[in-house]
Specification:
Order of helices and strands of chain A: HHEHHEEH
CATH topology of chain A: Arc Repressor Mutant, subunit A
Distance between the termini of chain B: 54 Å
Largest sheet of chain B: 12 strands, mixed
Number of domains of chain A: 1
Helix content of chain B: 40-55%
Radius of gyration of chain A: 16 Å
Number of helices of chain B: 27
Shape of chain A: globular
Strand order of the largest sheet of chain A: 1-3-2
Shape of chain B: globular
CATH architecture of chain A: Orthogonal Bundle
Strand content of chain B: 15-25%
Oligomer: heterodimer
Number of strands of chain B: 23
Number of helices of chain A: 5
Radius of gyration of chain B: 37 Å
CATH class of chain A: Mainly Alpha
């Protein structure tokens, strides 16, 4: 009874932009909801500001898909009313796969001359 | 907690758009995120952007979350239903029966009673009749002079009149007899019918010297003229006059079912005001109400009564909508009783499925308790059971609609011919909408109880002790449901019992004649045959009857102006000459013109005096009366030789008294009837009556004989008398057989319900039974224990059912003939049947209880 992990990963691609943003935000460690929102805004220079609905709607779905995990106890010292999330092993693999997909897409775009080649 | 800002309060409202579970999980977090973001995002642009996002969340995201929850619920429900195939199959089959039967019956109700009439502004179309309360005449034909006066004076209503009849058409092909009308030219514009081809009538067509024109219905156009466009402009001969066909009228564009239309020409000088021969239809003019039109018509009738006391004394008007005329109230009532009955079946089916679900909920108690313990919200559990219910209802409903698709064509063949508009019964959009709403309502109806019962579980007890997690609440609901089923089944059985008895009595009613071996047919003679008095009889019919009478197998032949159950009636008020029970009053009396052998052919017994003599000479002013008429006029005195006054034709002398005959309807008591001899009176259209055995081949014999005498004459409406009588009982037969079918379905479903409840009880109490038996209880004692339980269960339902039957007796009473709606014997019989069924249904689980092995039952502890 082996899980077809690669198949499961491929089934999730391409990842919704919100999912990828959240995975990237959690790449460095666990965060609570607003902290994810803030991190995404900073990384995109304020261009992407998630609404609470988008954020928690995505979190709910990503939890269901097993991309992220909820921490059962908050990090020491943190506001204990907050719920914290971290990326799962599976989530990490999905993020890598998505990055590979984007990379190969970029390579194709360069190949065709659509995007200038790196000097 | 920080003080709540206006924005936060607003956001709390927006959060309400999300499903409860989602709010429970993330609401607080979202609020926190909102609070922090709104404290960072300052400046008009940022605030605007934030609120635009929040609003979009509630409009797009929140419904998405709802859908997501629904999808999960459906997936969960489907999975759990597939894990219990026996339960699912039983529930779906039960619902399919209930919904299917409802859909089929509703499709008939819709076609007959609910569908709007296909005429322009049909609710403003009315029929107008004359009535005379003193003579107890209602819904009577209108005299042409009265019609003309009405039409000239009425301001609130347009009126058109017609006279129905039939004509023999002669064109290029063989002569054909068709129903016809002479009709006011403006009838077609009044009802809003435009011709399919050609033109409708115009006012000029009714002028005395106008060219004779005619319209045909498209059925006749297709059958007789082969649908040829050259039919328009062609000529047809009726008797000695030639008519030009000017247009074709569509089948359903007008409420009148004639095939051949000619313009009505009224010469008021030549018509008599007391000769009631015409029918009148009207359209209430825009700006006026039905009541205003009725009031005006009544006041016009009063004026005419004052102006023409001789003919109009006591005559008023009567009005009804065309809808009430075409779809009589009695028909609608019968249909709604059927619909009520089939709804009872559905309710029973719902109760059964609810019971199944309750049993299932009880056995899933442990699963539910565990899910609640790990945090599933109660509201979600309730919704999941409701989702299961709705899925069952929709699948059952879809199967039910298939059942209806399959059964409606069968049902349509079974419907009485005289049920109006029933031939258009189909499972159409409106019917499907009805079925869909039935499904949704039933789904919620049968799932609500299990949903609540299931989630109310005693959490701890169920987890600790899964096997014995009995809920007394659930058991009580199940018993109440089973009792309700018994009650509904009892009501249906009472209804079925009453209708079946009513039908039997109707079919056993004495007719006053012997219908077996009688064939009737109609035929008419052209006008020129009537020029000499008596010429139609002496010159044609007498010979025809003689020829027919001598054919092999023929017992007797006769002629009449109307055979029993042939449709239509003729009657007039008569007065007595000399002493009588009615003194100066009139007696409304049905009359028929009959040939001398009529009574012998019909086998109507002679009670006194004699029949008409075979040779016409002596019967100029003689009369044969029915027993009822003799009794009403002269009581027990001998009526022979007494005289009456009838119409303008004067005095008649009674020469014979014959038995009463049911002429019109099985359920109507015979009216006073008198018979005039065809040797003096003959109508243009007469009915031939042939009594003969199977050698006769009456239809063929008649056609052959008539053709031999005059190839221009057509014979039509050939019918067996027994068929005519059967047709007259068709609606009661349909009511009785359908309700009996529903009652059987109800009884079976109720039996399943009782069986289910008891079987469940036995399985729940097997340990108790084991203990009892270990302590010495005998098997018969255990059997008795559960049988008594089942009978008690049924008893409550039986009492409720009897009360229910009494409560609805008013509705069913109007459908009954010669049976009281609260007939105690019928109620007792229904109670007996249901009690026996309940006992049988209890016996199987009760017997299983006696098979409990004390050792095994106790070891399970």
């Amino acid at each position: 009874m082996t899980r077809d992990i690669d198949g499961e990963i491929q089934a999730l691609l391409p990842l919704a932009p919100a999912f990828l943003h959240i995975l990237i935000a959690l790449g460095e460690g666990e965060r609570h909801g607003y902290s994810i929102m803030q991190d995404v805004a900073e990384r995109t220079a304020g261009r992407v500001k998630m609404s609470p609905g988008t954020l928690y709607g995505s979190i709910k779905r990503m939890l269901a898909e097993g991309l992220i995990e909820e921490l059962t106890t908050g990090t020491a010292g943190a506001d204990e009313r907050r719920r914290f999330y971290r990326i799962s092993k599976f989530g990490r693999r999905v993020a890598v796969a998505e990055a590979d997909r984007l990379k190969s897409l970029l390579a194709q775009a360069r190949e065709s001359g659509l995007v200038p080649k790196r000097s | 907690m920080a003080r709540t800002t206006l924005g936060e309060r607003l956001y709390r409202i927006l959060l309400r758009f999300y499903p409860g579970e989602f709010r429970d999980d993330y609401g607080r977090e979202m609020l926190l995120a909102f609070r922090e973001r709104s404290s960072h995002d300052r400046g008009a642009g940022a605030v605007l952007r934030l609120w635009a996002q929040l609003l979009a969340d509630s409009i797009v995201r929140a419904p998405g979350e709802h859908l997501d929850v629904l999808r999960q619920d459906v997936r969960y429900a489907v999975r759990s239903l597939r894990r219990a195939p026996l339960f699912t199959l039983t529930a779906v089959a039960t619902l399919a029966l209930g919904v299917g039967a409802n859909t089929a019956i509703f499709s008939v109700v819709h076609a007959v009673a609910l569908r709007p009439l296909p005429y322009e502004a049909a609710d403003r179309l009315v029929r107008v009749w004359e009535r005379n309360e003193a003579l107890s005449i209602t819904g009577f034909a209108v005299s042409l002079p009265n019609f003309v006066s009405w039409r000239d004076r009425a301001q609130t209503i347009e009126l058109a009149g017609w006279r129905s009849g039939s004509v023999t058409l002669r064109s290029t092909s063989e002569p054909v007899r068709v129903p016809s009308v002479v009709i006011s030219p403006d009838y077609f514009s009044l009802v809003g019918a435009t011709p399919l081809a050609g033109r409708a009538f115009v006012a000029l067509d009714a002028e005395p010297n106008a060219e004779r024109v005619a319209l045909i219905r498209d059925s006749l156009w297709r059958s007789y003229f082969g649908g040829d466009h050259r039919a328009i402009g062609s000529t047809v001969t009726i008797g000695t006059t030639t008519h030009t066909v000017v247009g074709v009228i569509a089948e359903d564009s007008a409420p009148l079912a004639a095939e051949f239309y000619m313009p009505l020409r009224v010469d008021p000088a030549a018509e008599q005001r007391d000769n009631h021969i015409a029918s009148v239809i009207g359209r209430v003019k825009p700006g006026y109400t039905y009541a205003q039109a009725q009031q005006e018509m009544e006041s016009i009738a009063k004026q005419l009564e004052a102006e023409f006391p001789q003919s109009n004394k006591g005559w008023g008007i009567e009005m009804s909508t065309v809808y009430d005329w075409l779809v009589p109230e009695a028909t609608r009532r019968a249909l709604f009783v059927l619909l009520g009955a089939v709804c009872c079946v559905l309710l029973i089916a719902c109760a059964n499925v609810a019971n199944l679900m309750l049993a299932r909920a009880a056995s899933r108690k442990r699963e539910i308790a565990v899910r609640m313990a790990i945090g599933a919200a109660r509201r979600r559990l309730v919704r999941q059971v409701l989702t299961e219910g709705l899925i069952l209802a929709l699948v059952g409903g879809a199967a039910g609609i298939l059942v209806a698709y399959w059964s409606v064509p069968l049902l349509r063949q079974w419907l009485p011919d005289n049920l109006p508009r029933a031939d258009e019964t189909t499972v159409n959009g409106a019917v499907l909408l009805f079925s869909l709403s039935v499904c949704v309502v039933t789904g919620i109806a049968f799932a609500i109880l299990p949903a609540l019962a299931g989630s109310r579980g005693e959490l701890i007890g169920a987890i600790k002790d899964g096997t014995r997690g009995t809920s007394s609440g659930g058991t009580r609901s199940r018993q109440a449901l089973a009792a309700a089923q018994v009650a509904l089944a009892t009501m249906l059985l009472v209804g079925a019992g009453l209708l079946v008895q009513s039908l039997q009595r109707l079919q056993r009613v004495p007719l006053g004649f012997e219908p077996v071996n009688i064939t009737t047919a109609m035929m008419g003679l052209p006008q020129d045959r009537f020029k000499e008095p008596g010429s139609a009889w002496e010159g044609f019919y007498k010979q025809l009857l003689d020829r027919l009478g001598s054919a092999p197998g023929v017992d007797a032949v006769a002629l009449s102006s109307g055979a029993p159950f042939g449709g239509g009636n003729t009657g007039m008020p008569i007065k007595a000459v000399g002493e009588s029970n009615i003194r100066d009053a009139s007696l409304q009396t049905d009359w028929r013109m009959v040939s001398p052998d009529y009574f012998r052919a019909m086998r109507i017994p002679l009670l006194r005096g004699r029949y008409f003599a075979p040779s016409g000479g002596g019967e100029k002013d003689t009369l044969i009366v029915s027993a009822t008429m003799a009794r009403r006029m002269w009581g027990e005195a001998d009526p022979i030789g007494r005289q009456i006054l009838a119409g303008p034709n004067g005095k008649y002398t009674v020469v014979g008294v014959v038995g009463d005959v049911r002429n019109l309807d099985l359920s109507l008591t015979p009216a006073p009837t008198m018979y005039l001899s065809t040797t003096r009176f003959i109508w243009p259209t007469m009915t031939i009556i042939i009594r003969g055995d199977e050698r006769t081949q009456a239809a063929e014999l008649l056609r052959r004989t008539v053709r031999a005498m005059d190839p221009q004459l057509a014979v039509f409406n050939v019918r067996e008398m027994t068929d005519l009588i059967d047709q007259s009982a068709a609606q009661p037969r349909l009511n009785a057989s359908l309700i009996a079918l529903f009652a059987v379905m109800a009884a079976v479903l109720a039996a399943l319900g009782i069986y289910g409840v008891l079987a469940y009880l036995v399985s729940q109490r097997s340990q108790e039974i084991g203990i009892r038996m270990a302590l010495g209880a005998s098997r018969p004692a255990v059997l008795r224990l559960f049988l008594v339980r089942g009978v008690w269960l049924a008893a409550g339902g039986l009492v409720a059912g009897v009360l229910g039957s009494i409560a609805v007796s008013r509705w069913i009473g109007s459908l009954l003939f010669d049976v009281r709606a609260r007939d105690p014997w019928t109620i007792a019989a229904a109670v007996g049947v249901v009690a026996v069924v309940a006992l049988l249904a209890s016996y199987i689980p009760a017997r299983r209880a006696t098979k409990v092995d004390p050792l095994i039952a106790l070891r399970a502890e």
